Amino acid sequence: MSISYTVRHATHPADSRNYDTAKLREHFLIEQLFEADTVHATYTLHDRLVVGGAHPVGQPLKLESFPTLRSEYFLDRREIGIINVGAAGSVTVDGEIYELAPKEALYIGKGAKEIYFNTSEAGKALYYFNSAPAHHTYPTRKVSLSEAETVELGALENSNHRIIRKVLINSVVETCQLQMGITELQPGSVWNTMPAHTHDRRMEAYFYFELPEDQAVCHFMGEPEETRHLWVKNNQAIISPPWSIHSGAGTSNYTFIWGMAGENLDYNDMDKVAPTDLK
């Protein structure tokens, strides 16, 4: 089996207040996403999202089910969003090939069976994915950056000039609950998602990439009145519970992918927290 998986239990905010750095990293940081000829998957009980990565080098990698899912195929009761974060590559879905340029996305609905992450020239294609439970089958669809809903926010004066590309969101593609997008920090800017916010009706995962190997991002989490932080490297991800803020500042500009699962598809359903109210 080419898939390696771990399970993370949901956490209560009152309990997390007692975590030291090692415990915070154990529960919320995903350090290993890409390994040659392996699919890595982390199953979190926060909205039962699966966060994963695939790095095919010698041969295509099949997206296989694993015991926790209790299903013959990975997508028997799930949907998945895949974003190519490496060189140009392709994904095969039940015999049909979908070419993915860097940062292009692919949505695959419930019921698809044979899914392969294909190799690319020099084995440099990297596929990041989020998967959530699904109640209905929506069509498989590729989304290019030109099709994304794109907004520009922030300003260089506040060190948070960023471009948000909503690639797998209900205004672009039909999904059951999964939403994904790409936020690119512009040169000279380091803060993302500021002012911070929470959203009780869905959780989120952050995947940081395009970060120089000698740089890092300080990811802030926790309740607004009881914040914590984790230092994150390139190609690592964070699990963000519904009760937690999710914001970060890097020692360089970078790009990150946000993925959400929960009971609604309203992107603006959030409770903002002013910077002066954070503790």
From TrEMBL:
GO process terms (BP): D-galacturonate catabolic process; D-glucuronate catabolic process; pectin catabolic process
EC number: 5.3.1.17
Catalyses which reaction(s): 5-dehydro-4-deoxy-D-glucuronate = 3-deoxy-D-glycero-2,5-hexodiulosonate
Pathway noted in the entry: Glycan metabolism; pectin degradation; 2-dehydro-3-deoxy-D-gluconate from pectin: step 4/5
Keywords from the named record: Isomerase, Metal-binding, Zinc
Binding positions for Zn(2+) per the UniProt entry: 197, 199, 204, 246
Principal EC category: isomerase
SUPFAM superfamilies cross-referenced by the UniProt entry: RmlC-like cupins
InterPro entries xref list: KduI (IPR007045), KduI/IolB_isomerase (IPR021120), KduI_N (IPR027449), RmlC-like_jellyroll (IPR014710), RmlC_Cupin_sf (IPR011051)
GO molecular function terms noted in the UniProt entry: 4-deoxy-L-threo-5-hexosulose-uronate ketol-isomerase activity; zinc ion binding
Cofactor(s) the protein requires to work: Zn(2+)
Leader sequence segment: none
Co-factor binding details: Binds 1 zinc ion per subunit.
Family designation: Belongs to the KduI family.
Entry function: Catalyzes the isomerization of 5-dehydro-4-deoxy-D-glucuronate to 3-deoxy-D-glycero-2,5-hexodiulosonate.
UniProt-recorded name of the protein: 4-deoxy-L-threo-5-hexosulose-uronate ketol-isomerase
Organism field: Pontibacter indicus
Lineage: Bacteria, Pseudomonadati, Bacteroidota, Cytophagia, Cytophagales
Gene it is expressed from: kduI
